[in-house]
From TrEMBL:
GO biological process: citrulline biosynthetic process; L-arginine biosynthetic process via ornithine
Record family assignment: Belongs to the aspartate/ornithine carbamoyltransferase superfamily.
Species assigned in the record: Conexibacter arvalis
Enzyme class label: transferase
UniProt xrefs under Pfam families: OTCace, OTCace_N
Record protein name field: Ornithine carbamoyltransferase
TM spans (from-to): none
Domain Aspartate/ornithine carbamoyltransferase carbamoyl-P binding: 3-140
Length: 290
């Protein structure tokens, strides 16, 4: 069985810690690794992306490899070619491939039949590559992950779920504050709160994501209303630890889930976090194609 990365739970705690440290090393020396020399990596995008595409395409290049971007309208998959056949054929050409798609069933089926590693570039359920970059950012800000309190405020979505699974495994304390109906499920590594003020007390990181994820557009108005008290602003940050920083995986909607003051202010590490996607994913690709 090849090494897949679908939810992040495939990596042990030690592997995660090593991967985060490796990402920080690669950030200091971006051309230090030729792990993908002579190899190609498939990148299938069935949903829009700015950061994920940029960071994977440039990251594969920096590792000496060839990124192959595949759009759904250009693939036979969209004309009914079986998922199994798609996985077989991709596996004959690339050293690994990733997909950004809707439900989690498609990536699971691809992984079932692929003979090369498959990685998740965002599904409705998970965004584990984002969580890796988040943890790299926490480690470079605080020097450790152990016991760092990371509070996610807002919709209990794919980004929150990956943070809970991957962050708790790496040693951080993950809290999620969300209103009823938008809460993350219990038992995946996060302590659940309804009151954002209570959840950010003592937090080192205050994290948020969009209120309307890709695929949730039909319920946009009710989501905005339900989540209106879950905005990350200066007043909420003031309730966190003195050294607290704000994170956001982006794209942001200033005025909704985060204020412009926080997004462009001096208590955020959001733009470093966006850059860290590339470094984290390079460390992941090194591990997967080893
Ligand atoms: N954070 C993130 O995954 O951004 P994109 O949707 O632009 O890839
Ligand atoms: N939760 C968001 C993340 C975007 C990077 C979405 O799925 O659209």
């Amino acid at each position: 069985m090849p090494r897949h990365f679908l939810t992040g739970a495939e990596l042990s705690r030690d592997e995660l810690i090593a991967l985060i440290d490796r990402a920080i090393e690669l950030k200091a020396a971006p051309h230090a690794s030729r792990a993908l020399e002579g190899k190609s990596v498939g990148l299938i995008f069935q949903k829009p992306s700015t950061r994920t595409r940029l960071s994977f395409e440039t990251g594969v290049f920096e590792l000496g490899g060839n990124p192959v971007i595949l759009r759904p309208d250009e693939m036979q998959l969209s004309r009914g070619e079986p998922v199994r056949d798609t996985a077989y054929v991709l596996s004959r050409h690339v050293a690994a491939f990733g997909i950004r798609t809707h439900g989690d069933e498609l990536i699971e089926e691809l992984a079932q039949y692929a003979t090369v590693p498959v990685f998740n570039m965002l599904t409705a359920g998970h965004h584990p590559c984002q969580a890796l970059a988040d943890l790299v950012t926490v480690k470079e800000t605080f020097g450790t992950l152990d016991g760092v309190v990371l509070t996610y405020v807002g919709d209990g979505n794919n980004v929150a779920r990956s943070l809970a699974i991957v962050g708790s495994r790496a040693g951080a304390e993950i809290r999620v504050a969300a209103p009823e109906g938008y809460q993350l499920e219990d038992g995946i590594g996060a302590e659940l709160f309804e009151d954002p003020a209570e959840a950010v007390r003592g937090a080192n990181v205050v994290y948020t994501d969009v209120w309307v994820s890709m695929g949730d557009e039909e319920t946009a108005a009710e989501r905005r209303a339900a989540l209106a008290d879950y905005r990350v602003d200066d007043a909420l940050l003031d309730l966190a630890a003195d050294d607290a920083v704000a994170l956001h995986d982006l794209p942001a909607h200033p005025g909704d889930e985060i204020t412009a003051e926080v997004l462009y202010g001096d208590r955020q590490r959001i733009w470093d976090q966006a850059e860290n996607r590339r470094h984290a994913q390079k460390a992941l690709l090194e591990l997967l194609v080893r």
